[in-house]
Write a structure and sequence with these properties.
The chain is an alpha+beta fold. The protein folds into 2 domains: about 80 residues, 2-Layer Sandwich (Gyrase A, domain 2), CATH 3.30.1360.40; about 150 residues, Beta Barrel (Cyclophilin), CATH 2.40.100.10. The protein contains 5 helices and 14 strands. The mean pLDDT is about 95.
C-alpha cells in the first residue's frame, strides 16, 4: 500500500454532547495532516450531518449543531475512514516578506550567540524552507508552521513578553510563525512582516488554510516601510500560487 493510501490507527472520543474528537498518532507528520484533511472532505461529502471541522497537527474536532448519538456517529465515522479513497489536496503556497533588521529582531542577537552563526545566516536559514501550516489558533490567523531548519530550533523564552508587536516573526521550539496582531507572547522574535495575515475587512479574514504551504523572503528596512504604506492604503495583496506536491 502506498504511503498516500495508508490507514492510521485513529481513535474517536466524545467531547460533550455535540462534539467528537478524532485522534491520529501524536506526531508532526505531513502525511498524517494530509490524511486528516482528506478525511474531513470525506466527512463533508458522505456523513450527511452538518458539522464544523477544526483540524490540527494530529486531530480533527467535529462540532455538531445539536446533541448526537456519539456511539452511532463514531461507528459511522470509523467505517467512512476505512473505506476512504486517497484524495488530492488543493492548497496554496503563500509568499510572506520579512525584514530581519535589528530594529525588528529583539532576540536575533541572543540567537546568534547561542547558535554561533551570524544574524544574516539565521535569516537565510529561516527564509529557505517551504513551511507547512499545521495549525491556526492562539490568535486569529496565527499560523503554526512546521519545517524549520533544525539548526534554528530554540526553546520559547522563559519569560514571555507582555506585548509582541503585530507582524512579529518568531521561533518557538521546532516551529516558526507570525503574530497577526499585538499580543503577549513567548516566541523568539527575529523579524517582522508588514503584511496582514488576518484582516477583518477581507471576505476571508485569514485566507491561509491548514495544509497550505508558506515561504518567507527577506526584504530591507526600506522595503518594509514601502510595503507598510501599501498595506495601509489597502493596495497590497497577499501573494500566493497553487502548490503541487
Amino acid at each position: 500500500m502506498s504511503k498516500a493510501a495508508e490507514k492510521y490507527p485513529i481513535s474517536i472520543s466524545p467531547v460533550g454532547l455535540q462534539s467528537l474528537l478524532i485522534n491520529w498518532p501524536k506526531r508532526i507528520d505531513e502525511d498524517i495532516l494530509k490524511d486528516i484533511i482528506c478525511f474531513g472532505e470525506t466527512i463533508s461529502k458522505k456523513l450527511a450531518i452538518a458539522c464544523e471541522q477544526l483540524p490540527a497537527y494530529h486531530s480533527l474536532l467535529l462540532i455538531f449543531d445539536e446533541n448526537i448519538d456519539t456511539v452511532k456517529i463514531s461507528d459511522r465515522l470509523l467505517k467512512l475512514y476505512e473505506s476512504m479513497e486517497p484524495c488530492a489536496m488543493k492548497r496554496r503556497l503563500w509568499h510572506i516578506p520579512v525584514c530581519y533588521h535589528p530594529d525588528f529582531a529583539p532576540d536575533m542577537q541572543l540567537l546568534s550567540s547561542q547558535k554561533g552563526m551570524s544574524p544574516q545566516k539565521i535569516a537565510e536559514l529561516h527564509s529557505s524552507p517551504v513551511y507547512t501550516v499545521y495549525g491556526i489558533g492562539f490568535l486569529p490567523g496565527f499560523m503554526y508552521l512546521g519545517g524549520l531548519d533544525k539548526k534554528l530550533y530554540t526553546p520559547r523564552r522563559k519569560e514571555p513578553r507582555q506585548s509582541v508587536v503585530k507582524g512579529a516573526v518568531g521561533i518557538g521550539g521546532k516551529q516558526t510563525g507570525v503574530y497577526p496582531q499585538e499580543s503577549p507572547g513567548g516566541w523568539n522574535i527575529i523579524g517582522n512582516t508588514p503584511v496582514k495575515i488576518f484582516d477583518l475587512s477581507r471576505k476571508k479574514p485569514c485566507p491561509v488554510r491548514i495544509g497550505d504551504k508558506l515561504r518567507f523572503f527577506e526584504i530591507s528596512q526600506e522595503e518594509h516601510k514601502l510595503l507598510e504604506i501599501e498595506v495601509s492604503a489597502g493596495v497590497y495583496k497577499l501573494k500566493s500560487e497553487k502548490y503541487h506536491d
